[in-house]
Structures are given as structure tokens and as C-alpha cells.
Amino acid sequence: MTTILITGAAGLVGGMLRSRLARQGRTLRLVDVRPITPVGPAEACFVLDICGVDALAEVCDGVNAVVHLAGIATEGTWEDIARVNIDGTRAALEAARRAAVTRVALASSNHAVGFHTRPADGSDLPAGCPHRPDTYYGVSKATMEALGSLYADRYGMDVAALRIGSCFPEPSDVRGLGTWLSPDDCGRLVEAVLGAPAGFGYRQVWGVSANTRRWWSLAEGRALGYEPHDDAEQFAAGIPADLPGPDYANDPVLSRVGGAFCDFPLGEPG
Ligand code: 15L
């Protein structure tokens, strides 16, 4: 893959991915509403509204894959979420299609399925579990997945929806010890999607590291070639709330996929 377009490249995950997707002979096209400076020698920045399909399709010309990260990253008003996250995802997929780009990675979120709880038998929650969004934000990610499935079925595109957990430099709380996606594993996951053999259609995978306390399945990611290396447990000693021992079955934050998002007031920007 020699030319990759990243939408929302000025955001947190975009910033972590740029260096991790850099390869000899590869160019990154960085799209955002905010200008990005500085850019590297193998990067080009395009300041665009994510809902502008025509301009986006022009920037997609000659691209091998789109990594769609653009969007509001937490709860917001319905109007904002609908425009930026839902219209924006439709625009990214439609622009890719018009430019004959056949591979797209979508930054979905655990909040598309936030009301699922830990399986009582201790098994991993599959990435194919039905939508149970916890917020308007979660609805936008469920819709993102539906749009990805639509474009894969209609146009034969390969679209992977990455149900990202907590992608930060380090986990910050007990929940994060299970839900963390390390920046390096995030790079590995996207690279796996870019390198998977053509024709995989639509896939949903969890974006999570090989955490000791993980309870989301890695099977679907591994089937695409993702092999995580990191484990949040290395940070456990620095997380004080880990004492005297978390109640994973009953604590409302720890027992549900979406944690505290399940109790966020709907439509109130976080
Ligand atoms: C998300 O989808 C958010 O974008 C991120 O900020 C975190 O809150 C994360 O989920 C999480 O669940 O930890």
C-alpha cells in the first residue's frame, strides 16, 4: 500500500498512527478540518470538511486505502453527532467509492455495543455481537458499521470496522486495564487491515490489546492478521482504584462494555 489517506489525522489517534504507518515508499495524505503542521516529507495535509464528498473524492484519487478517523470522539448533541459522525462517515465511504478505493478502515468504537455486559461464563464477547449503543455517539458508531457493511455489499469494497476500546498512551483507570488499545497495537491493527488479502468484504473487529483483563474477543482481529503485543497489566500498579479488588460482575462501569458512557446524559457534549 503506497498511498494511504487518513481522515481526522489531527486527532489523538491520527497523531499516534502517522508515525506508526510510515513506511519506506509510502505517502500519507492527512485530511482534517484543522491544518496540520509540521508534516513529514512523505505526508501531505488537506484541510477539508469531512462532509464534503466532492472535495474528499478528489483527495482520494490514486489512494490505496482510507483510514477514517474523523469524528466527534465522545457524546455530543444529536445535530453535531449526526452531521460529523454519520454524514461524515457516509461521505468518506462515498468519496472512496467514487475514487475506486477498495479498502477502508473505519474507527468504530466499543460504544456501538456499550450496553453489552460481561458474559457470565467468562468467555470473550465476540466482535459480532449486536448493536447496543450507549449514547448518540454510540448510535453514530453503530451507523458507521452499517454504512461500512452497505458499501462492502453494494460495491465489493473491503471495509473493516475497528471497535476501538481505550486508545491512549497508557490506561488511566481499572476499566482501561481491560479495554486499552496501545498506540503500537493500534498501528498493528490498521496495518493488518491494510495488508489483509483482498476480498474480505465487511468485518468487525475489536480494537484492543492483549490485556490480561481483556474480555473482548481477539479472534476476529486475528483472522484479519492482527496480533497485539501489548498488555495494560504493566500499568496496573500505578492505578490506585485497583484496591481492594474490582467487582467486575456488579460494578456498573466495569460490567458493561461502555462503562460510564452508559450513564452519560444523552446529547450532552462530554
Ligand atoms: C471512545 O470511543 C472514545 O473516543 C474515547 O475517548 C474513550 O472514551 C473510549 O471510547 C473508551 O471507551 O475508553
From TrEMBL:
Q: Which keywords appear in this protein's UniProt record, sorted alphabetically?
A: NAD, Oxidoreductase
On the tree of life, the source organism's domain of life is Bacteria
Keyword NAD assigned to the entry: answer is yes
Coiled-coil zones: none
Keyword hit for Disulfide bond: no
Q: Which InterPro entries match?
A: Epimerase_deHydtase, NAD(P)-bd_dom_sf
Where is the NAD-dependent epimerase/dehydratase domain positioned along the sequence?
4-166
Q: Which Pfam families match?
A: Epimerase (PF01370)
Family the entry assigns: Belongs to the NAD(P)-dependent epimerase/dehydratase family.
Q: What's this protein's name? A: NAD(P)-dependent oxidoreductase
